[in-house]
Structures are given as C-alpha cells and as structure tokens.
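Retro notes, item 3 of 5
We never archived the inputs for the magnesium ion complex last cycle. Fixing that now. Sequence and ligand:
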Amino acid sequence: MNRIKNIKSTVLSHFWGKLERIDFDFKFKNGNWKRLSHEAYGKSDGVAILLYNTETKKVVLSKQFRIPVYISGVSEGVSIEVCGGAIDEGESPETTVIREAKEELGYHISNLKAVNTVFLSPGIVRERVHLFIGEYKDLDKIDNSGGGLEIEGEEIEVMELPVEEALNMIDSQEIIDARTIMLLQHVKIKGLLS
Ligand SMILES: Nc1nc2c(ncn2[C@@H]2O[C@H](COP(=O)(O)OP(=O)(O)O[C@H]3O[C@H](CO)[C@@H](O)[C@H](O)[C@@H]3O)[C@@H](O)[C@H]2O)c(=O)[nH]1
Ligand SMILES: [Mg+2]
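Structure as it came back at the time:
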C-alpha cells in the first residue's frame, strides 16, 4: 500500500506473545503525511471450534478462569468459551483444532468445517482466529481426557448443554467471548440444530 512507509517495529515486551510499537508514516486522503505510533500484540494465529451434536441438539463449551476478564472486574474472571488456542509452529489450523478439542474437551473430532477467519480486535491484536464447527457424537468422547493440561496452567471445566441454553447465555451476558458468540450464532443462522 503506497500510503504507508518507513515502518519501524520496537519490541516493548516479549513474554508469551509479543507487544510491539509500530512507528510509520501514513498518508491521509488529503495528501498529508503524518508519523503515527500504534501498539500491536500477538503470538501466533489462533483457532476456535464449536462442537455440536445434531442428534441431541447440544454443544460442548469450556469454562475457565481468564485473568484479563478478572482484572476488568467481570464475572470473577470466569469465561465460558468454545475450545480454542494458539497454533504451534509448523501446525495447520486443522491440526491445532483437533489437538485442542482433545486436550481441552476430551473429544475426538473428525468432521471439521471451516467457518471464517476473523480479527477479534483489529486496532490492537494482530492475531487472526480461524473459526470452525465440528459435528460430534456421544461415541467421540475419549475417556479420562479433556480439562486442559495442568502442567501448562490450564484448568478447564467441560460443559455439554442444549444449544438454546447456550444462546440464552449470550443474552444474559454469561457468555462474553466473541468467538463463542459468533459460532453459536452461526449454528443458529444456518439452522444446523433446528
Ligand atoms: N493466553 C495466555 N496463555 C499463556 C500465557 N502464558 C502462558 N500461557 C499458556 O499458554 C497456553 C495457552 O493455551 P491455548 O489453549 O493455546 O490458548 P488460550 O489461552 O485458550 O487462548 C488464547 O489464545 C488464543 C489463540 O492465540 C486466542 O484466540 C484467545 O483469545 C486467547 O488469547 C496455556 O497453557 C497457558 O497457560 C499468557 O500470557 N497468555
Ligand atoms: Mg485454550
């Protein structure tokens, strides 16, 4: 894009993800150039998947403690979400989503469908999240699996509930995660569980 030049990145923090300050010259529509500074945060891209069962009309979600939610003073930090996570180096989004569904929810998923790829907060976060839905049957539950990896600091409660109940939890603000809201609404709009 010829409206941007002299891009300089300064790493402000690199712990789990990387926080950068990007300085750049930006040309406004009136032709004026201005030097701007913006922060951008990210690790790798991510994935998220909503598991749904066409026989029981249920979905599988996870419930976990999220420190950014806690320090915002919301719901004592508890967040109900679709399963998801960061893509490891060399992994495809499909491989990540299958791995996360097993680690976090304890389900073996073979029937994946890509929905779309989204930015959750394009002014701040550079991560793109690949959204999927996956049909499951009761037989796909792996015994003694799910709940996340304690060695990685994860403690995840698996919730299987009727899709209508999950949709009501959007209205009541019990579900506040954008990925989860998008995927539940996708299933509803496409009539996949009606
Ligand atoms: N999120 C996060 N995880 C960390 C951090 N430091 C270590 N971890 C460890 O890294 C793993 C992250 O788990 P994932 O399942 O891969 O990711 P997530 O926390 O569920 O989701 C986050 O990443 C997604 C993909 O990048 C995002 O889409 C999502 O919004 C969220 O930030 C966990 O084991 C967690 O303990 C940190 O600063 N932040
Ligand atoms: Mg996760």
